[in-house]
Amino acid sequence: MPETYQERLQKRFPGIEVTVKAKADALYPVVSAASICAKVARDQAVKNWQFVEKLQDLDTDYGSGYPNDPKTKAWLRKNVEPVFGFPQFVRFSWRTAQSILEKEAEGVLWEDLPTEDQEGQGRITSYFNEKPGDRPHLPHRYFQERGLESATSL
């Protein structure tokens, strides 16, 4: 919801006027330019990705890395590990990845929770559906290695 995200950004950057709109890249040239820059940077990062996992015979021909790419979907199905899921490269929040995990991964029983609290917790994807603030959020390794930090002011 654009309104919700706009409100969230406005709180984060109180001294700056923030506008969030659907299809903003078609409405504002500066957003179009930023979108192109982000896509080029992302595509370069995906192309040069170095897996930290030492996985034998890991096929790195994963296509574009976008969840709607048939080659990426095939790679996800081929490289899902029933207990640990996917390498760090994969966004577990993607619906595509979650669907594959729900079909291919083992169920999870959280032994430290009473049985009545287990409802909805039996899938591996339940770990990735935490609400913000449930646990401290550390930046992804990509950002840590490059010394990149979130901006708190502009």
From TrEMBL:
Biased amino acid composition, Basic and acidic residues: 131-148
Catalysis: reaction(s): Endonucleolytic cleavage to 5'-phosphomonoester
Catalytic activity, EC: 3.1.26.4
Requisite cofactors: Mg(2+); Mn(2+)
InterPro entries per record: RNase_HII/HIII (IPR001352), RNase_HII/HIII_dom (IPR024567), RNase_HII_hlx-loop-hlx_cap_dom (IPR023160), RNaseH-like_sf (IPR012337), RNaseH_sf (IPR036397)
Region annotation (Disordered) ranges: 115-154
Gene3D superfamilies, per database record: Ribonuclease H-like superfamily/Ribonuclease H, Ribonuclease hii. Domain 2
Keywords: Endonuclease, Hydrolase, Metal-binding, Nuclease
Keyword Metal-binding (UniProt): yes
Signal peptide: none
This protein's GO CC annotations: ribonuclease H2 complex
Oxidoreductase as UniProt keyword: no
Any Pfam family the entry gives: RNase_HII
GO biological process terms on file: DNA replication, removal of RNA primer; mismatch repair
Function recorded in the entry: Catalytic subunit of RNase HII, an endonuclease that specifically degrades the RNA of RNA:DNA hybrids. Participates in DNA replication, possibly by mediating the removal of lagging-strand Okazaki fragment RNA primers during DNA replication. Mediates the excision of single ribonucleotides from DNA:RNA duplexes. Endonuclease that specifically degrades the RNA of RNA-DNA hybrids.
Annotated PANTHER family: RIBONUCLEASE H2 SUBUNIT A
Family classification: Belongs to the RNase HII family. Eukaryotic subfamily.
Protein name, as recorded: Ribonuclease
Organism: Pipistrellus kuhlii
